[in-house]
Amino acid sequence: MNKAVRYGGNTLAEKLFLLGEMLLLLASSFAASFILSFYQPIDQELAAINAVLYTGCVMLCALSVGLYDQKLREDTGGVLKRVLITLFLAGILLEVFIFSLIPSLHLGFIFNLVSSLISLITLTSFRMLFHYHDITKISRRRVLVLGSGERASIIERRMRRNVDRKNFEIHGFVKIDGDQEGHIPDSKVIQFDYKTSLYEYAVEHEIEQLVIACDERRNMLPVEHLFKCKTRGVDVIEILDFIEQETGQIAVNLIYPSWVIYSNGFEMNHRFKTSLDHRLNAVLALFVLAALWPLMLITALVIYFDDGRRTGASVFYRQIQIGIDGKPFQILKFRSMRPDAEAGGAQWATLNDSRVTKIGGFIRKYRIDELPQLFNIIKGDMGFVGPRPERPEFVEKLVKEIPYYNQRHNVKPGLTGWAQLKYPYGSTTEDAQEKLKFDLYYIKHRTLLLDLVILIRTVEIVIFGKGR
């Protein structure tokens, strides 16, 4: 299996963190039953079932608001806010859905309220303690980078923050013959005869992973030493795979065709193009439509009374975009801009775009404008998860300027996607290239489980109004 699929957290520290949080939630629920037992009899078997349900719901909601994002950067206030939202969502999930369907399991609203109050204190304290003492140090890999030129500098430039290096620590960069000069500070470059003593150096300094990142590989690497390191338990990995496993993206500027051909991944795509995928998406879209039609009706009325009645413009906006295999289709959205927004031709939407109406700004922030695309999903033009579709005018330009951009059309576009979770709002060619790195990662590793994680975590985008 490609090691890149480890992205998202399988290190010892992360396993301990998840285990610790699960135990705290169970303890909070049992503590609530113990406190309430002084006022009323509590069935202990029912209390145990409630503890498991409560823990599962809270952890699911924590995932949905980004609390399990290993690169989450929040101060105490930010963590507290996310924990509060998590507990609120978990309460709705339990009271409105689970206990409505199985009322015999319900121990009462007060029980869940007390559990949540205890969890608020324990979870916030645990997260602050965990991150303050940086417990991730216990499982960081000791990494030696073979290279100190342009390719190696990507690690130094793009992964220099502590949050980027939670899973590893860089021992140093080894200068390899053929590397370009001046990309890595001299203080971080290690000088030794790597051609004759790489294995001995790796053993002596307890190196756990070697990253191949030299600018010129042909006849430059000590293959016998790399072979010996590999057979003695030292992981040897390409820089492309290293970046992929640590960042959840594929470095487009480093890709070469043979890496794509021989690397693991991409094999699930054919299965996802089948009619089964369309039927699953269509059924889910019908359920979502049945639940959200009142919100869609209210949105349409608000847009109509805001400027639709005055201008005669439709509350919907139809636009040609590029779908799977490069085929155009007509996407449907709620109109969020003035009717004359593109009188001068197609142009990128920007942050704080002056063409956006007052109502449009709100529905765009919380992605309400995207809801009519449920009809595109039912029709089969889109899925729930996939790269966001783009307009043909922009695709034509981006294909010429960005390597491998056309490969994002190998799967159906989606209502939400990996790039929307991982990259902020963008409206330039450079932003499109950064998002492509995440789109290609998604295409390579696409599974039902990854789709499910993206769908759950889209709640974070909606609640906090981030990414598009």
Automatic annotation (TrEMBL):
<dbReference type="InterPro" id="IPR017475">
    <property type="entry name" value="EPS_sugar_tfrase"/>
</dbReference>
<keyword id="KW-0808">Transferase</keyword>
<keyword id="KW-0472">Membrane</keyword>
<dbReference type="Pfam" id="PF02397">
    <property type="entry name" value="Bac_transf"/>
</dbReference>
<feature type="transmembrane region" description="Helical">
    <location>
        <begin position="108"/>
        <end position="130"/>
    </location>
</feature>
<keyword id="KW-1133">Transmembrane helix</keyword>
<dbReference type="InterPro" id="IPR017464">
    <property type="entry name" value="Sugar_tfrase_EpsB_2"/>
</dbReference>
<dbReference type="InterPro" id="IPR003362">
    <property type="entry name" value="Bact_transf"/>
</dbReference>
<comment type="similarity">
    <text>Belongs to the bacterial sugar transferase family.</text>
</comment>
<feature type="transmembrane region" description="Helical">
    <location>
        <begin position="280"/>
        <end position="305"/>
    </location>
</feature>
<feature type="transmembrane region" description="Helical">
    <location>
        <begin position="46"/>
        <end position="67"/>
    </location>
</feature>
<feature type="domain" description="Bacterial sugar transferase">
    <location>
        <begin position="281"/>
        <end position="463"/>
    </location>
</feature>
<protein>
    <submittedName>
        <fullName>TIGR03013 family XrtA/PEP-CTERM system glycosyltransferase</fullName>
    </submittedName>
</protein>
<keyword id="KW-0812">Transmembrane</keyword>
<feature type="transmembrane region" description="Helical">
    <location>
        <begin position="16"/>
        <end position="40"/>
    </location>
</feature>
<feature type="transmembrane region" description="Helical">
    <location>
        <begin position="79"/>
        <end position="102"/>
    </location>
</feature>
